[in-house]
């Protein structure tokens, strides 16, 4: 039977295509669940509904047609509201038309004829895009990738690849709770072999049912290998439903306990790590401590062996302390003498300070006199500077007059406009001979034009030949061209290239700019603009241009005559004036003598001023020193008294220390033998005990390794079933279902997604004749009814 979407379903009596019926029958047994009425809230009623998404796919898993079918039990409600994005809505129950706005669909029923059950179909591709798995199919014939539409009727080994990849865009509920069943059937009489790794393969009559399963969040890649002489494939059927079996509650409970135990387990694991690390670290510390005790025992032996030397040195220390006491005894009288000297120094410093302070008035008057003399010198210097400046101005005037006498005041080098026009016409002719159709000029043609403009080529062909050689040399590069003996030619070509690139030629004006620039014209850009304007004027009206240029030539000739007369008059006046100014300059040179005298006087005043300032500074410094001495002299006297008392106390302390050392030496000599023996036994026993304890800690590595393995197994298992491989521990069979069309809808009673891929079959005449007798596709229910009618006939025919 031919469907509207182009896919073929089994036809009654055709045993070859009965396989799809078995698949659909198994799927239907899992997918249809009775609806449960909702509890009433107050005096209102709430409709309940079941939701199913039907989709047909092409050979490879691309959506060709998709519809959501919702079946409602109204429970007496007069209207129902649904949310979703549908391309088309079909009422499958009665003629009630819905109102739609912004994804909200409302059915308002006739109160006199309210249905108990209501069904509608919404055609849409949106749920397909949000399914928890992305399904794709691929095919190979005898190991070679082949298009599905080319496999029908082929002989050989066909590999059907099925890829199930989790869709991250799906809702969390779908990712964690949906399970997928993929199935297909093959007629055992029509195939030579069948292999499906990872599948449940069952024989029903003469049909082989192949069924694959994917857990929530699980990525799977399956392959079905079919050997056939006349290959056909009824397509793959997919069922996606939320797992709601009561047994799954145990998995949900396991997931909850995993979350509850995870924190405590992490704390216990961390504590064990810390404990084992500490115990493991103790091994090294115990051995180190034992070694330290051995070294301490060695030190004890060294001290015991050297105590005789210590006793001898102690005697020497007692002698040194006695000598130090003798030295400290006369310090009291020496400190008293230092205090007297400090008092005498204070008196002498005060007298010197008073004497120098009296000189302040004289140094102040001297500086005042020096300042007055400096002011007079500044006035004189200012006058001399004015005279010097006037001399400089006179010299500048003298040079200007001399220049006027030797050159023209007015330039007579004004170019004739007729000559400029001739130049413009010549350049334009060159431009027209080398320019391309878009107005641009190539580098080689530009060089040819530059050679002709400079008079270095007699014809265009000769210039182009020379330019071609220069372009070749330029492309060699400076190093290679110089090595080949063409250094000068490369330099010329490089300069022309710079001018060509700078001008960026696209019209006559830019061409003229490049030619003038290459010829060394410093005002090439402005001159090119004038030549372009002049040629445009000439091209527009040659006669008018000639008249204007002749007039301008006459005017320029008159201006040159006038400028020549002016230059002659200026030269006759300039030379005598320059001689007079030269004599005045010689007289002013004598003023430099006054500058020398003034500088010497100023230097002497500056030296005297510096001397008086340093004298004042020295007086101030001495006065500050006297103040500081007066400030700290009492403190110094107190310090000397403290040092005197300290020396007296130190002398007594040294004597007492000598007595104490003598008593300590006698005590050590008396108890040394017993103390040395007891210390030796204690250190040896403690070191042996620590080494035995260190040996017992060596097993902590094995314990820690075993704990690490257990921890890795637990964490890997949790992670594998919490998102790494699948979402088994995230499943919650008690969670409220989420509508596949919109989260704004209440939870449906059941959800199922049923998809089927396109068949691979060779159409025969019987199928074509029967398809022609069923041209009316009918309603949605009639299409579904006919489809399942064929499935049922096929299933029951297996057992006849």
Describe the structure.
Among the domains are: 15-235 and 758-783, no CATH class; 419-568, no CATH class. It contains 19 helices and 17 strands. It has helices at 19-31, 126-129, 172-177, 249-305, 307-328, 331-357, 360-406, 417-434, 443-453, 460-476, 478-483, 487-503, 508-518, 524-540, 542-588, 592-696, 700-724, 765-773, 780-798, and strands spanning 48-57, 63-73, 79-83, 88-91, 99-101, 104-108, 117-123, 133-141, 144-145, 156-166, 178-187, 193-196, 200-204, 207-214, 220-228, 237-242, 750-757. Strands 4-7-2-1-17-16-11-14-13 form a nine-stranded mixed β-sheet. A five-stranded antiparallel β-sheet has the order 9-8-10-15-12, with no helix packed on it. A hairpin with a 2-residue loop joins strand 8 (133-141) and strand 9. Helix 6 runs antiparallel to helix 16 (592-696), helix 8 (417-434) runs antiparallel to helix 9 (443-453) and helix 12 (487-503) packs antiparallel against helix 13 (508-518). The longest helix has 105 residues, at 592-696. Residues 1-38, 771-776 and 794-800 have low confidence and may be disordered.
Number of DSSP helical runs? 19
Give the spatial strand order of the biggest sheet.
4-7-2-1-17-16-11-14-13
Give the overall shape: flat
Please identify the structural class as seen in this structure. alpha+beta
The N- and C-terminal alpha carbons lie at a distance of 22 Å
Radius of gyration: 59 Å
Instruction: Detail the poorly predicted runs.
Output: 1-38, 771-776, 794-800
Helix percent band: 55-70%
Q: What percentage of amino acids are in beta strands?
A: 5-15%
Q: What profile does the largest beta sheet have?
A: 9 strands, mixed
Could you tell me the mean pLDDT?
78
How many DSSP E strands? 17
């Amino acid at each position: 039977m031919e469907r509207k979407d182009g896919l073929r379903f089994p036809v009654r009596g055709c045993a070859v295509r009965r396989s799809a019926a078995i698949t659909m029958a198994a799927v239907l047994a899992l997918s249809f669940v009775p609806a449960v009425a909702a509890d009433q809230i107050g005096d209102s009623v709430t409709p309940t509904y079941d939701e199913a998404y039907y989709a047909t796919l092409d050979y490879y898993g691309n959506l060709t047609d998709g519809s959501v079918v919702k079946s409602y039990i109204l429970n007496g409600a007069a209207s129902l509201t649904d949310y979703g994005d549908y391309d088309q809505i079909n009422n499958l129950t009665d003629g009630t038309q819905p109102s739609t706005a912004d994804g909200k669909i409302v059915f308002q029923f006739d109160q006199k004829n309210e249905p108990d059950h209501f069904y509608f179909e919404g055609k849409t591709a949106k749920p397909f895009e949000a399914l928890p798995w992305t399904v794709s199919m691929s095919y190979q014939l005898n190991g070679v990738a082949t298009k599905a539409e080319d496999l029908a009727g082929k002989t050989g080994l066909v590999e059907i690849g099925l890829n199930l990849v989790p869709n991250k865009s799906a809702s969390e509920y779908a990712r964690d709770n949906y399970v997928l069943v993929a199935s297909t059937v093959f007629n055992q009489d029509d195939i030579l072999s069948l292999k499906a790794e990872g599948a449940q393969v069952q024989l029903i009559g003469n049909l082989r049912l192949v069924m694959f399963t994917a857990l929530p969040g699980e990525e799977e890649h399956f392959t079905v290998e079919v050997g056939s002489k006349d290959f056909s494939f009824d397509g793959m059927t997919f069922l996606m439903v939320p797992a709601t079996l009561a047994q799954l509650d145990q998995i949900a409970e396991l997931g909850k306990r995993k979350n509850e135990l995870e924190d405590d387990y992490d704390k216990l694991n961390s504590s064990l790590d810390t404990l084992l690390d500490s115990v493991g670290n103790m091994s090294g510390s115990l051995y180190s401590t034992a070694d330290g005790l051995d070294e301490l025992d060695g030190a004890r032996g060294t001290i015991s062996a050297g105590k005789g030397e210590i006793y001898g040195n102690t005697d020497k220390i007692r002698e040194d302390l006695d000598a130090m006491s003798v030295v400290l005894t006369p310090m009291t009288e020496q400190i008293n003498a230092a205090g007297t000297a400090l008092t005498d120094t204070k008196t002498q410093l005060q007298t010197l300070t008073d004497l120098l302070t009296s000189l302040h008035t004289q140094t102040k008057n001297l500086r005042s006199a020096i300042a007055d003399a400096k002011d007079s010198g500044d006035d004189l210097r200012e006058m001399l500077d004015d005279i010097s400046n006037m001399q400089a101005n006179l010299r500048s005037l003298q040079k200007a007059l001399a220049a006027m006498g030797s050159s023209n005041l007015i330039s007579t080098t004004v170019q004739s406009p007729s000559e400029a026009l001739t130049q413009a016409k010549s350049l334009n002719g060159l431009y027209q001979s080398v320019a391309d159709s878009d107005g641009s000029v190539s580098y080689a043609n530009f060089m040819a034009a530059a050679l002709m403009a400079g008079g270095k080529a007699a014809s265009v062909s000769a210039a182009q030949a020379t330019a071609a050689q220069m372009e070749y040399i330029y492309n060699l590069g400076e190093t290679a061209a110089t090595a080949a003996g063409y250094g000068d030619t490369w330099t010329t070509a490089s300069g022309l290239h710079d001018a060509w690139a700078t001008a960026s030629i696209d019209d006559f004006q830019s061409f003229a700019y490049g030619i003038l620039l290459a010829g060394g014209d410093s005002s090439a850009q402005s001159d090119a603009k004038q030549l372009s304007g002049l040629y445009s004027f000439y091209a527009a009206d040659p006669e008018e241009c000639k008249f204007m240029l002749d007039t301008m030539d006459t005017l320029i000739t008159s201006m040159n005559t006038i400028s020549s007369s002016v230059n002659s008059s200026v030269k006759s006046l300039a030379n005598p004036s320059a001689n007079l100014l030269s004599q005045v300059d010689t007289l002013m040179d004598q003023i430099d003598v006054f500058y020398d005298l003034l500088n010497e006087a100023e230097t002497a005043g500056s030296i005297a001023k510096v001397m008086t300032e340093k004298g004042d500074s020295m007086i101030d410094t001495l006065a500050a020193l006297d103040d500081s001495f007066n400030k700290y002299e009492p403190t110094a006297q107190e310090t000397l008294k403290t040092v005197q008392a300290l020396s007296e106390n130190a002398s007594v302390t040294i004597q007492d220390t000598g007595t104490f050392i003598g008593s300590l030496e006698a005590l050590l000599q008396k108890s040394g033998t017993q103390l040395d023996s007891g210390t030796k036994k204690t250190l040896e026993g403690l070191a042996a005990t620590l080494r035995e304890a260190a040996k017992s800690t060596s097993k902590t590595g094995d314990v820690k390794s075993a704990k690490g393995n257990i921890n890795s197994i637990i964490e890997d298992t949790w992670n594998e079933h919490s998102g790494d491989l699948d979402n088994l521990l995230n499943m919650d069979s008690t969670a409220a279902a989420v509508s596949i069309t919109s989260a704004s809808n209440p939870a449906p009673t059941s959800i199922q997604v049923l998809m089927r891929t396109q068949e691979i079959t060779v159409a025969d005449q019987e199928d074509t004749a029967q398809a022609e007798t069923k041209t009316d596709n009918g309603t949605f229910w009639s299409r579904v009814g006919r489809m399942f009618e064929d499935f049922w006939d096929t299933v029951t025919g297996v057992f006849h």
